[in-house]
Amino acid sequence: MADQHTLNIQKNLEESVQFIRSRSSLKPRIGVVLGSGLGAFVDQMKVETSLAYDEIPGFIAPTVEGHGGRLLLGHVDSVPVACLQGRIHFYEGHSMAAVVHPVRTIAMLGIESLMLTNSAGGLDPAQKPGDFMIIEDHINLMGDNPLKGPNIAQLGPRFPDMSEAYDRKLNDKMESILKKMGISFSRGVYAGVSGPTYETPAEVRYLRMIGGRAVGMSTVPETIAANHLGLRVCALSCITNPAAGIVDQKLSHDDVTHTAKLVETKFSGFLKEFITTL
Ligand code: HPA
After folding, report:
1. Whose CA is nearest to atom 9 of ligand 1?
2. Residues near 110 by Cβ (< 8 Å), separated by ≥ 6?
3. 128-144 tens-digit pLDDT
4. Where does ligand 1 bind, in terms of residues with CB under 6 Å?
5. Which residue, by CA, sits nearest to atom 2 of ligand 1?
6. Interval 186-220: pLDDT, tens
7. Which of 115, 164, 138, 158 is nearest to 220 (CA)?
């Protein structure tokens, strides 16, 4: 007999999947998660079904400004895609299980690969606002893990391997397309923190020292859950600001979303190109 934690997660997943299936028969091959201010990619999609998170049983609507909250099913050229426009963040106070629920749901719909996007602070002074960073690896500093608790064997193994959490082939593909499109980017390690405070300058020095090149408050839980499920994962950050203390300037959420908005079209163009080559 499965424990309550497992039963709740499975029941929520079944309810979400059943509801979505009642609205769409599309079998997505690729999943995309759009981060803060990066929602314009949906204009590149032929959207066939659009569902607000608050109408999908088991989903929670995000509360933060700049984050939509819709599941879109459709095609990018001929590729069937499930796009999560907006995400739930750990700092909103939800459990890790709630944070990764949308990704688990689209995995149940059939995606094979997952592309995560986010806004992040740059830890490398050479990065400029609006640059992109291919996430090669992460450091989980969120103090929690979505797989904590009894393992749900139907989803994946107890101790998932994370030695290639971000798929090298997908990273190389992203790199070649970014180069071809003349987009300024770097590659590096994403330090995932819980937020909601931005970092102190001392924390930023620490994050650089331990090997981080970007810092943000998302992506890590989804990457962990997706690896558990055996999906191929890749992730791209939009560097919206130098992290605290790198330049003498205060951080604000408005500035972060403003920068993301400035590059949204370029970001969407890249995503479209990338997805159609997968
Ligand atoms: N820190 C954490 N998360 C972020 C930042 C930052 O500087 N910028 C965008 N998301």
Report:
1. 120
2. 27, 28, 29
3. 999 999 999 999 999 99
4. 119-121, 198-199, 215-217, 240-241, 243, 251, 256
5. 216
6. 999 999 999 999 999 999 999 999 999 999 999 99
7. 138
